[in-house]
Amino acid sequence: MFNEHPSQEENPLSIRTKRGSTRKFAAAVAVALVASVLALATPVGAKQSVTTARVEGADRYLTSTALSSAASLAGADSTDFVLVNGASYADALSAAALAGTKQGTIILLPADGTISASAVARMALATDVTIVGGYAALPATVETTMKTLRPTATITRLSGADRYATAAKVAQTILTGNIAAVNGLKSVFLASGTSFADAVIAAPGAYAGPNNSAATAVVPIMLTATDALSAPT
Questions:
Q1: pTM of the model
Q2: Cβ-contact 94, 140 below 8 angstroms
Q3: Selection from 150, 72, 56, 92 nearest residue 142 by Cα
Q4: 174-211 tens-digit pLDDT
Q5: 111 secondary structure, DSSP code
Q6: Which residues of 58-97 are buried (b: 16+ CB within 10 A; e: fewer)?
Q7: Gene3D superfamilies from the xrefs (predicted)?
């Protein structure tokens, strides 16, 4: 994680959004994980009651829609959505913190921009839709389709020349909100732009921010090369 000293003049972090319910959702997930660990550590013969649930779809795209619905039932905003190419991990990872600032969810779309019937139904009440990635990632037909489905919704695209520039663009957008402070320092995650594993691990923290942070605070994910900071970063 990379830290910067916060500047009150340059970064007025005053925006507040409804965060409590989503933190409860994250807390429930954490409790479930702790319960599973405790179950493994319990002596043989001891009785434990562990409730598990699977969120799934026929493919990654339908799974993302199902997860979005599950998150909404747990308190996430059902009107704000972030759309990304589900065949390429980079934009989805940088979108995690953006979804956190909006208290919304991420929907994966195929590279041709097709929006499935389940995704259409899921976004029936959308008021704010952000597309992350350039036109090579998701075509202009995504904007066209969403404007037809939700004429009154705000449709925005965030993109850069490559994955590094796109991640930087997303982070710059989040600067208008509340970036979490760790040990008093405004923070971002730095992860490899060529390998998704580390950034996947960071994604929940990017969305929810540290437990002791302000209710709206998130931690942007910045992608970089392995041997040096990429110029956009």
A1: 0.72
A2: no
A3: 150
A4: 876 666 666 667 778 888 888 888 778 777 777 776 65
A5: T
A6: eeebbebbbbbbebbeebbbbbbbbbbbbebbbbbbbbbb
A7: 3.40.50.12090
